[in-house]
# Entry
Amino acid sequence: MLTIHASRQETVTLNDKEFFFLAGILGSDRLLGVEDPFSGYLTEEIANEWEASKVSLLEKNYLIREETGELSIPPDVFSRVAIAGLAERACWLKYENNDKSFEGYLHVTEEQVIQVCKCDDNHCYMLSELGTIEDTCNKLVEDLALSDQSPGDIPALLLSRKEFKDIYTCAPEMNSDELIDRLVKLTDDVEGSIALAKCMINRVSSGELQLSKWNGYNWESQNAAFIVNDSMNWLLRMSLQGDQDWLTAAPATKEQFYNMLLMWLKQ
# Structure
């Protein structure tokens, strides 16, 4: 039997097998972003892996053996693994800016948000507590290097998702006029195309988000992306269905971006 043991961990670092075993003990079989390390294993092989993982978890003090022989879990390890494995809201986030890059998952409950990202070793994961949803949104809008300036009255643009992806991929090879020309042909909006092209050419930050909610059977998701330069933030929302081909690009203030994140993570 496993119980919670009173001690505190900072960042919890688990390999994929340790993560899977602890999540399974706590009742989770739907770890996002973590491939099943036991696919194709026989029952006896899995039992042997559990014994090896148990030893390493005890060495890390992520499991504690009590005097009675019972195993207990430190509360921070318990809560982080439980939220990562059982939370019904999650956000996959990938971004890069002038200072850093990041890819990982945010697992969300009403009380706190747990961040899970890979270590340099792809079979290792770091679980960190980010605080409340509000704390997390405040941290994100700073980490994403969003512009503080107001975008003015530029309207949203409606584009083909597939064609915009092609333009975005080819943008580094195009000059400003070529990029603007392709966007104008796609949107029929000169002012908005010029502003979006400038942001793409001079971007200081960009990234993607996938917001997911567990409906009891599977994950329902919606996608968004963003492009930022020193004077403007563009928020992109796009179709996920294979038979749909749309994307909207809209200027957004830093405050609007914060409110959008807050609404999505609280939904």
About this structure: The longest strand covers residues 205-214.
